[in-house]
Amino acid sequence: MIEVSGLRKAFGTHEVVHDVSLNLRPGTLHGLVGANGAGKTTLLHCLYGLHHDYQGTVRETTGLSIRPCTGLLPYEPYFYPRLTGREYLEFTLQARGRALVDFEGWNQLLELPLDQYAEEYSAGMKKKLALLALLVQPFRYLILDEPFNGLELNTNLLLMEILRRLRGQGTGILLTSHLLGSLTELCDELTVLADGTVRRRYQAAEFGQVQADLLDGFYQNKLAQVHRLLPL
Ligand SMILES: Nc1ncnc2c1ncn2[C@@H]1O[C@H](COP(=O)(O)OP(=O)(O)OP(=O)(O)O)[C@@H](O)[C@H]1O
């Protein structure tokens, strides 16, 4: 299991993650929700080791080093210029010292033009390529930052089934999304972040309360403001 304990992360003097603790267990789907700027991406980057200058601990409890057994889907995947989709996939395998595999089975699902330059893909195609690079190799953990964002409806439904299957095979998956319905349909556990702290955790049996907790007070205040700005 990946265990995060007492995590604090600042950019300069601005602390954006304050004393966050959470666990990611193998064979579970753990959703992370929170407003824009709540600290979700920063937390994921600390877990994956993209930030090292944090306080607290992030560890795999069996002693594994996290990065080699974990795949990260970044919020905005970046691709080197003049690299085709296929070359990018080959590069990601080689970078981890893995043998090349046949991509076609997975690409029958995502239907990418693998021989075109990845930098020329649409935003949704780039997201699919970054996902494909994770799906063609085995990982004990996956960290997915907004995996559904920008994907067409069919692919989102496929992705949900793929994530359920990976969970069934024992993968521990931590994902962020602003699509609450997708998270409550998919996840075993939700953590709500607000202003860099854990506001509340929910187990699946409690998911019915999440929408009311997250939205009702916020939405009623904003709705009153809309009515003030646009009186009928
Ligand atoms: N490189 C950086 N330098 C300075 N501040 C940063 C940096 N990255 C993030 N922040 C700040 O950290 C806070 C948390 O940002 P973060 O991207 O983690 O939020 P988020 O919850 O993922 O938001 P969103 O839902 O909009 O993606 C924000 O106030 C943001 O401005």
Characterize the structure shown.
- It is a single chain.
- The strands form 2 sheets. The protein has a 6-stranded mixed sheet, sandwiched between helices.
- It has 7 helices and 9 strands.
- It has one domain: P-loop containing nucleotide triphosphate hydrolases (Rossmann fold), CATH 3.40.50.
- Helix content is 36%, strand content 26%.
- Helix 2 (85-95) runs parallel beside helix 4.
- It has 232 residues and is an alpha/beta fold.
- Bound molecules: adenosine-5'-triphosphate (ATP).
- Adenosine-5'-triphosphate (ATP) binds at residues 11, 16, 34, 36-42.
- Pfam families: ABC_tran.
- InterPro entries: AAA+_ATPase (IPR003593), ABC_transporter-like_ATP-bd (IPR003439), ABC_transporter-like_CS (IPR017871), ABC_Transporter_VariousFunc (IPR051782), P-loop_NTPase (IPR027417).
